Amino acid sequence: MAEQLNTHRLGRVARTTKETTVNVEISLDGSGLAQISTGLPFFDHMLEQLARHGGFDLMVATTGDLDVDSHHTVEDTSLALGEALRQALGDKKGVRRFASGRFPLDEALIDIALDLSGRPHVEWHVPMPEVLPLGTPPFDPQLAEHAIASFATSAAMTLHVDLVRGRNAHHIIEAAFKGLARCLRDAVRIDGTAIPSTKGVL
Fold first, then answer.
1. CATH 3.40.50.2000, domain 2-187, yes or no
2. Which end of the chain is least crowded, N or C, by CB within 10 Å?
């Protein structure tokens, strides 16, 4: 897939631990092309939403110790993805930097605000209904927070996620990923030539 990616703003990360092997490529100026394989179909689906609604081209290939649980796979994939995004952004010259919005999926409504600040901070206020894990192998809905927080921290962004309302865990999580994608799409957009900070660096 590498030859298909727009290489203007491209991030590539390979991460290997005793628990996982992760390879990520992201092009910020793509068309929503996604090739995702983590061994967790529900998580794959969420990362596909990130690519499609963010307008990114994204490749993720993860093998992990799913026989133990899904935590290591989700965490390490999210950390690598955040690092790849940070790499692709480079010095952030000309990016819009800030984005926010409210995003519905059926009965669920999520409020998201982010800043490509270079200062990692996450506020996650999304109470999750008590439900069985989603998909096979299972994805624990509680891991949605860990996935998004690990991604945002590794990408060095400030991120606020609040649940306005919602009853269905799948809808809540998917609204969060889609909303994050749309905000990232706006925040990484080039609309100037300067670094958007009075400090001159982000």
1. no
2. N
Amino acid at 79: L
Roughly how many angstroms between the first and final C-alpha of the chain, as a whole number? 30
Spell 155-168 as b/e; 16+ CB within 10 A means b.
bbbbbbbebeebee
Find out whether 23 and 64 touch, Cβ atoms under 8 Å: no
Q: Residue written as tokens 């690990």?
A: 150
Count, residues in the chain: 202
Is the Cα dihedral 129, 122, 79, 197 positive or negative?
positive
pTM: 0.94
**DSSP-derived 3-state class of residue 22:** strand
pLDDT by residue for the chain (202 residues), tens only, comes to 444 444 489 999 999 999 999 999 999 999 999 999 999 999 999 999 999 999 999 999 999 999 999 999 999 999 999 999 999 999 999 999 999 999 999 999 999 999 999 999 999 999 999 898 999 999 999 999 999 999 999 999 999 999 999 999 999 999 999 999 999 999 999 998 899 888 888 8
